[in-house]
Amino acid sequence: MDGSTSRRWWALGAVNLSVLAVSLDGTVLSVAQPTLSEALNASQSDLVWFSSGYLLVLAATVLPVGLIGDRYGRRAVLLSSLVLFGLGSALCAYAGSVAMFLGGRLLQGLAGAGITVMALSALVVLFNEEERPKAVGIYQAASFIALPLGPILGGWMLSRFWWGWVFLINVPIVVVALVIGFVLIPESRSAQRPGLDPVGTAASALGLAVMTYGLVRAGDHGWGSPDALVATTAGVLVLAGFVWWEHRLGGRPGGQPLVDPRLLRPSPFLWGSALAALAGLVMIGVLFTLPQYFQGVQGTGTLGSGLRLLPLIAGMVVGAGLASRMAVGIGARLTIMLGFLVLATGVAVGAAASPGSGIGFTAAWTALVGAGSGLALSAATAAALAGLSVERSGTESALVQAFNKTGAPLGTAITGSVLVAAYHSHLGGAHLPATVAADARTSLYEGTSAARGAGLPGLVHTIQSAFVDGMGVAFLTGAAIALAGALVALVALRERSSRDSDERPLVEGGAVDAVAH
Q1: What distance in Å separates the CA atoms of residue 243 and residue 238, rounded to the nearest whole number?
Q2: Across all residues in the chain, what is the average pLDDT?
Q3: d(Cα 376, Cα 275) in Å, to the nearest integer?
Q4: What pTM does this model have?
Q5: Torsions phi, psi for 516 (to 5 deg)
C-alpha cells in the first residue's frame, strides 16, 4: 500500500470520528432526559424540542450546506462544523436554562448537517468506485457503534459524575477529528463554482423541515394528529414543487439547479438512496421499540438495555463489513435484496417475543436484524454513491443524507403509531379498572406504575402483555416493509452498465487532484 493510499484510509478515520461524535450525542440525549428534566426544570414539551429542534435544523440545512461545500471547500465546511459542534456541546453542558440548552442543540443540528454531509462527500472524493463500497462499509460500521455506546457510556457517567460530562465527552472526539482531518483530508471544491439557486435552496429547506416536523409529531401523537397530517402533507407538496423547479431550471440554457435533475429521476442513485432510507426506517423502528421492551417489560435499567443492544450492533457491523465483498461477488442488487430478506426474517422472528423471552432468543433475532440492516443499508448507500461525481459531491451527498434523515422520523412514526394502536386495542379487551386504564393508555410506564400503586400486580403483567402484543404487530409491519424493499431492489435497481458510466462519468484519480486546493 503506497503512502497516498494509506493516507486516504487514515483520513477515513477522521471522517468516522466526526460522525461518531454526532451519533453519540443523539443516543446520549435519550438517556439524559430524566436528568435534564430535573436539572433544567424542563417540561415534557421542552424535552421533545431538545430532540425535535435538532432534527428540524439538520433537515433544513442539509442541502444548503452541501452547496456551500461545493462552492467554498468541503474540508473547510467539515472542520468548521466540527468546531461548531464542539461549541454546541459545551453550551449544552453548561446550560443553566432550557433556552440555553435548546440553543446548544440547534447549533449542534446545524453542525451535524455539515459533518454528516461532508463526511459522505469525503468518501466520494477520497475513494474511487472500486474502493468506495469498502469505505462505506467501514463508515457505516463506525456509525453503528454509537447506538449502544451512547446509552452504556451515558448511563454510567450519569450515575457517577456531573450530568454535563455526557455532553463534554464530544469535545475531545471533536479535537482529535479536527487534527486528523486538517492533516490528512485534502481540500476540494467544484472546479466551476455552482450557482446558488435561491428558489430551490429555500424550497428544499422548507420542505424537509416541515415534513420532518410532521413526522416527529406523528411519532409523538399518532397519524390522527391534525398538525402531523397537515405538516407532513405540506412538506411533501413543497418538496414536489422543489423537484419540479429543479427540472425546469435544469432545462433552461445556462440554468444552474441546486441538484442535477438527472438524480431526481428513477436511477441507481435514486433507488439506492431510497432503499438505504427504507432499511434505516425499519431499523429505527426496532431501535425505537426495544428500549421500551427491555426497560418497561423485562425490568432492565438503562445500562442493561444498552448491553442488550450489543448483538444487534454486532450484526450491523458484520453486515456492513460483508456488503462490499458480496456486492463484488453477486452484484449490488442481489446484495441489497438479500439484506432486506435477512432483515425481514429477523424482525418477523422478533414479533414472536413474549414478556419472558430469554436473552439468547433476543440476541439471536436482533443479530439477524442488525446483519440484514447493515448489509442492505451499506450496499444501497454504496450503490447511490456510485452515481455521484466528485465535481458536485457535496450537494449530491446531501441529497443522500436528505433521504436518510427523513427515514429515521418516518420509521419512528410508522412503528410508534402501529404499536400504540395495537397496544390500545389489546388494552380495551383486558377490562382494566378505570383508574389504571387511563394511565395505561398514556404509556406503558405510567400504566404499570399505576397498577403497582393500586396493589394490583396481576394487571402489571396484563399491561406488559398488551404492549408486547402491540410490538409484535409493529414488527410484522416492519417485516412487510423490508420484504417490499427486497422486491423493489430486485425489480427497480439494475446494475450500472458501461452506458450509464459514459452518461455520468466519475471524476477519479488525477481529476481529484485537479479540484483539490
Answers
A1: 9
A2: 82
A3: 8
A4: 0.81
A5: -90, 135
